Amino acid sequence: MRLALLALCLSLGTSATAFEIEATRTYAANPVRHSLRILSTADIEIFEPLIEAFQIENIGVEILYDVASSTQVMQAIHQDAIDYDLVISSAMDLQIKLANDGFAQVHRSPEVDALPDWANWRDEVFGFTAEPAVLVISKDAFAGMEIPQNRRDLISLMRSNPSAFEQQIGTYDARTSGLGYLFATQDARNTETYWQLTEVMGGLNAQLYCCSNEMISDVVNGHLAVAYNVLGSYARARVAETPGLMIIEMDDYISVMMRTVLIPKNSENPQIAGDMIDFLLSARAKPILRNVGLPPVVDGADQTPLRTIRLGPGLLVFLDQLRRETFLRNWTGSILQNE
What we know:
Blueprint lengths: L5 H6 L11 E5 L6 E7 L3 H14 L3 E7 L2 H10 L6 E4 L2 H9 L3 E2 L4 H4 L6 E2 L3 E14 L12 H10 L1 H4 L3 E4 L5 H13 L3 H10 L3 E3 L2 H9 L5 E6 H10 L3 E4 L7 E9 L5 H12 L4 H6 L29 H15 L4
Parallel strand pairs: 2-3, 2-4, 8-9, 8-10
Antiparallel strand pairs: 1-3, 4-12, 5-12, 6-7, 7-10, 7-11, 7-12
Helix pairs in contact: 6-9, 9-14
């Protein structure tokens, strides 16, 4: 599995490792009137329909779409000053950090003004999807067991069946995954059972991952019985095409992450970047977002700030170096008990 930079996660200081792109694709235009360089954590296959729809409305815009992990995205903008025009990330806290440190520029429009306050920070960071963190399980692995509905159920089940769950639990490596760290800190804030659950998973030699898709793939291929806190948007796409998988939205607490977008300070085409933001927030994009499994940020009565992680300075709390080191020290002690 891919590994991001631990040094970047801990201190956001100078990195000794070059920025790494996982995948790239160019969407040509003929003739080319404008170019738009996008750096994103969203897989190409998921985001491609949105790019193609945008190009239909904006003739002559060539788009370069690069995919990287959330910590690599942070490095590209914060350390390496690479001149992207648009940055899309699932790590809301790192996006707020970029804006707070002066790496984002203001964008105003009617679409932006229509966003609720909790999805717009200083007209610099904008949420355009609301994606819950869910449990994905293998039905075969849970045969004869009661399906857990919350974290207490999951803890009880794992304690009662240690042989069934030894090395069969997947979760994010909070040290190297920006989204994993965000979910971990939110869980610790909102669920009194989080540290207990982490200790139980650690005692069963939980497997650590960078990202949702790899975790879900290992449930599909039988290497895992359960994937904890994966993105529901990715999970639903896999469950639809894979018999034997089940998604569980835990009834004690659900983190709902917003996929966010910003225009970097050194963007060479901020007007076109702003047009893409407006498109992502528009009514025209909502059916496309739903079709690719990305629920729009304001797309139904259940998408409320009570369930959704708000954009704001509160997300910077656990990016403080001392707090981060303390949190990760406790997390590492819980999840890596046998190392």
